[in-house]
């Protein structure tokens, strides 16, 4: 049995230690917001947060998350950075087909939580592992800047 917190709730799963975390989230727990893209850690579609850090869940094993705090796209809007990112995403209509966007939002939320005023270089580095076949990169960049500004304004209130 592997125990962890998922979006704030105590969660236990009876799975093999080496089951990919993405399988645990989608197939065992039925939470399908986190997407399968490449399956080899190269596209970012499966990004979740583990103790606040972004992780490619397709290449992490279930045993790796024992005792950890996991956040998925379903609950990222409950964090200050996640809420700011989701609002900016809607305002700037970032999404095209949508498939990569859970991962984009998870990486963006982690980026502005770690780097409150990200430069273009910070954004390039923080988002370099998230691939978008629709080419939404320009809107992603603008939305991260807008989200960082609104998160900073909320902190100053
Ligand atoms: S599905 Fe995990 S990085 Fe592509
Ligand atoms: S919005 Fe379609 S793959 Fe990114």
TrEMBL record:
Entry keyword set: 2Fe-2S, Iron, Iron-sulfur, Metal-binding, Oxidoreductase
InterPro entries noted in UniProt: 2Fe-2S-bd, 2Fe-2S-bd_dom_sf, 2Fe-2S_ferredoxin-like_sf, 2Fe-2S_ferredoxin-type, 2Fe2S_fd_BS, Beta-grasp_dom_sf, Diverse_Oxidoreductases
Residues covered by the 2Fe-2S ferredoxin-type domain: 1-76
Keyword set includes Iron-sulfur: yes
Pfam families named in the record: Fer2, Fer2_2
Stored PANTHER family: BLR6218 PROTEIN (PTHR44379:SF2), OXIDOREDUCTASE WITH IRON-SULFUR SUBUNIT (PTHR44379)
Name of protein: Isoquinoline 1-oxidoreductase, alpha subunit
Annotated organism of origin: Filomicrobium insigne
């Amino acid at each position: 049995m592997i125990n962890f917190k998922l979006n704030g709730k105590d969660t236990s799963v009876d799975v093999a230690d080496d089951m990919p975390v993405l399988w645990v989230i989608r197939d065992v727990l039925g939470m399908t917001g986190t997407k399968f893209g490449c399956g080899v850690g190269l596209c970012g579609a499966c990004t979740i947060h583990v103790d606040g850090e972004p992780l490619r869940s397709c290449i992490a094993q279930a045993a790796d998350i024992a005792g950890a705090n996991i956040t998925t796209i379903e609950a990222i809007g409950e964090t200050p950075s996640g809420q700011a990112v989701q609002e900016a995403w809607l305002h700037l209509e970032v999404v095209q087909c949508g498939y990569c966007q859970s991962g984009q939002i998870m990486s963006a939320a982690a980026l502005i939580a770690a780097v409150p005023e990200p430069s273009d270089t910070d954004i390039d580095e923080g988002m370099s592992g998230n691939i978008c076949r629709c080419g939404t990169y320009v809107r992603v960049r603008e939305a991260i800047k807008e989200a960082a500004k609104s998160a900073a304004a909320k902190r100053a209130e």
